[in-house]
Amino acid sequence: MIRVMRGQLPSKQSASILKTLSRSSLFAGLSEGELEHVLDFVVPKKIGKGEYLFHADEPCLGFYIVQSGAINLHRVHSGGREQVIHMVRPGESFAECALTMANGYPADARAVVATTVLFVQRAGFLELLKTKPEMSLRMLTSMSAHLRELVQQIEDLTLKDVESRLANWFLNRCPDISSHQAVEIDIKVTKRVLAAELGTVAETLSRTLSKFRQEGWIEVNGRLVTVQDPAALNTMLRRHLGECS
Fold first, then answer.
1. H or E stretch including 109?
2. pLDDT value at position 4?
3. CA-CA distance, 140 to 147, in Å (whole number)?
4. What is the per-residue pLDDT for 1?
5. What is the rounded distance in angstroms from the CA atom of residue 155 to the CA atom of residue 153?
6. Tens digit of pLDDT for each residue in 224-240?
7. Which of 7, 10, 111, 204 reaches 20 to 30 Å from 178, CA-CA?
8. Cα–Cα distance, 241 to 159 (Å, whole number)
9. CATH number of the domain at 160-244, please?
10. Which of 43, 70, 42, 75 is nearest to 56 (CA)?
11. HSE on the CB side for 55, CA within 13 Å?
12. Looking at residue 8, what is its pLDDT?
């Protein structure tokens, strides 16, 4: 078992890890002293772009929290096609469900860009659950959120075309889809990665983005997208779904 005592970490790194933990839904609400105890079983790890953190079915020794960068969780079908399950961004945790699964991690995890993750070791976390049973509820909440995302993804992939999926992706990141106030969204990943997340290819995504720009629904500046009028985009989506049904 890997174990790094907090005294072995530079104070600046410890402070950065504590900040990330405090923003994670799993550890939110813990006191500063309790978070410092968590440092005893958290190991920071840097992985390069394209490197794998783990593969499906490998033994689970713990779960992860993204500190910076992004992780692509995916499965590879028998024909070699990759299906993105979730794109994990800073502050989000993943692979918690594998803590109680005998058959290991349920998917592959690959860094989209140079990424730093916090590896939360299984043994230490399970010991913490014994003293902090309320964290079990947070863990269930976190896994429920992942399940909702999967259900949404299944709906997107089976009931909607690429145009609808992209519009829905933007709307899910708008605070109020009935508002006419412009909203800026940082995509943070490449078009190829976003396309895979939406179940399409980069060329189709580019054409759809171009159409959205021409219609005046969005403005694009690199990876920063401005949804000009969420309410109008939502109206378009509902109309489009009605025409496709």
1. strand 108-111
2. 45
3. 10
4. 40
5. 5
6. 999 999 999 999 888 87
7. 204
8. 9
9. 1.10.10.10
10. 75
11. 2
12. 54
Q: Point out which residues pair with 47 in neighbouring strands.
A: 115
Q: How does pLDDT run across 53-82, given as a tens digit for each residue?
A: 999 989 888 999 999 988 999 888 777 777
6-146 under CATH 3.40.800.10, yes or no: no
Tell me the whole-structure pTM to 2 decimals.
0.71
Which helix (H) or strand (E) segment holds residue 224: the answer is strand 224-227
Round to whole Å and give the CA distance between 207 and 211. Answer: 6
Residues of the chain predicted below pLDDT 50? 1-7
| DSSP state letters, 163-196 | HHHHHHHHHTTSS-TT--S-EEEE--S-HHHHHH
From first CA to last CA, the distance across the chain in angstroms is: 53
Residues across the chain: 245
- Which pLDDT score, from 0 to 100, does residue 126 have? 85
Report how far Cα 149 is from the mean position of its chain's Cα atoms: 10
Helix, strand, or coil here: 26?
coil
Domain ranges of the chain: 6-146, 160-244
Radius of gyration for the alpha carbons in the chain, expressed in angstroms and rounded: 20
Q: How many C-beta neighbours within 10 Å does residue 81 have?
A: 10
With CA atoms as reference, report the closest residue to 57 among 97, 19, 108, 94: 108
Amino acid at 76: V
Structure tokens at 151: 């259900």
Closest by CA to 200, choosing from 156, 144, 152, is: 156
Token pair 């790890």 is at which residue? 45
Which two structure tokens, joined as six digits, stand for 140? Answer: 């269930």
Q: What phi and psi values does residue 161 have, to the nearest 5 degrees?
A: -85, 180
